[in-house]
Write a structure and sequence with these properties.
A hairpin with a 6-residue loop joins strand 2 (33-38) and strand 3. The protein has a five-stranded mixed beta sheet. The protein has one domain (2-109). The longest helix is centred in the C-terminal third of the chain and has 19 residues, at 72-90. By secondary structure, it is α+β, with helices and mostly antiparallel strands. It is globular and about 40 Å long. It has helices at residues 17-25, 72-90, 96-101, 103-106, and strands at residues 2-9, 33-38, 45-49, 64-70, 107-109.
Length: 110
């Protein structure tokens, strides 16, 4: 798993970011925590419940984590904020290729 260097969080998880990341690293289940990751297909992002990572065959090694939110609604709003951030940064709506090209500088190994 790779983390975005300036990880996005919603207001409810901002103070608990290190605790949540530690639980992710230790593979401890968490209720109502969602991860916003880069999508492997055509879409920009995936919203993944942390319970999905508990599955043995879930591909965790290739996840590029952009944000953490508590609750589905908050995760959807945060993914919209992330989308607006990157579309302003790259001045276009399809910015996934730019993120893929800059993975080495934007993400760090978790």
């Amino acid at each position: 798993m790779y983390l975005y260097r300036s990880l996005f969080t919603d207001e409810t998880v901002a103070s608990q970011k290190k605790k949540i990341l530690r639980k992710l690293w230790m593979n401890i289940g968490q209720l109502d925590i969602y991860l916003i990751c880069l999508n492997g297909g055509q879409d920009q992002f995936d919203i993944i419940h942390t319970g999905m990572l508990k599955q043995k065959r879930y591909p965790k090694k290739d996840l590029y984590l952009l944000g953490i939110a508590k609750g589905w609604q908050s995760a959807a709003e945060l993914s919209g904020q992330i989308y607006m951030h990157f579309s302003d940064r790259y001045q276009k709506t399809e910015f996934k290729e730019e993120l893929e090209a800059e993975k080495a500088t934007l993400f760090r190994r978790f």
